[in-house]
Predict the 3D structure of the following.
Amino acid sequence: MNVGEEQQQQVAGTGNGVQRCTVVVVIDPGHGDSHDESTTIDPGAVGGGLNEADVVLDISKLLKGKLAAKTDLIESVHLTREGNVDNPSQERLLWRQQVAVAKKCDVFLSLHLNANEKTSANGKEVFYNHKSSNKAESAKFAATLFAAYKLPIAERKPPVKTEGLSVLATYPWTSRKLGKVRDATIFQSVKAAALFELGFVSNDGDRKAVVDNKDNIAGWLCDGICSYVSANRAILCV
Ligand SMILES: [Zn+2]
């Protein structure tokens, strides 16, 4: 038994170590199903020659490495994709949730870069779904992440309530584009979920700040996740 396991068992409160506290984190690098505009269904934003999908994948891999070292707090960490995913076997966006559920995810974080045709639009935003079954924990998680993220760009507003992001939904969700209901009830097993827009890829200042600070961003997000997990283990370890 290593120190991490011992601590986890103590938190689980079984007294004799029969049950371990296991917190599983899944990081979702947004988009990335294809960069071919003729076939892609979810390309993500492009700005200054940079693809959102590629930048968030780089940061997600760095974040995975940092979280994997936190063995006293986190049992395992997974990515929903390790590269571009061509022809995903599942419906658009829902396959991300299915990866999380398959990994028995407790804490889910989707990473994105924002974009706007007004190139002056800038800043960081974090979203959580206030209609989902995990809304209370997700609100706490989003607030902790927002506080931990130190990139020196504008703060657009504190954590934003939304029900418009299917990847955070825990209920049947209707796509305005595709016009059909997806059953996202599988995601109810996830205890906290948030989506972070790390900055605007369409804004020169934000884009440079993000690209120049990929490792720092991964570190701040790691701090936020660990801080949330550490403060909420009684809830996460059931
Ligand atoms: Zn995005």
About this structure: Residues 30-31, 44, 52, 112 surround zinc ion (CB under 6 Å). The chain has a mean pLDDT of 87. The chain has one domain: 21-236. The domain at 21-236 is CATH 3.40.630.40 (Aminopeptidase).
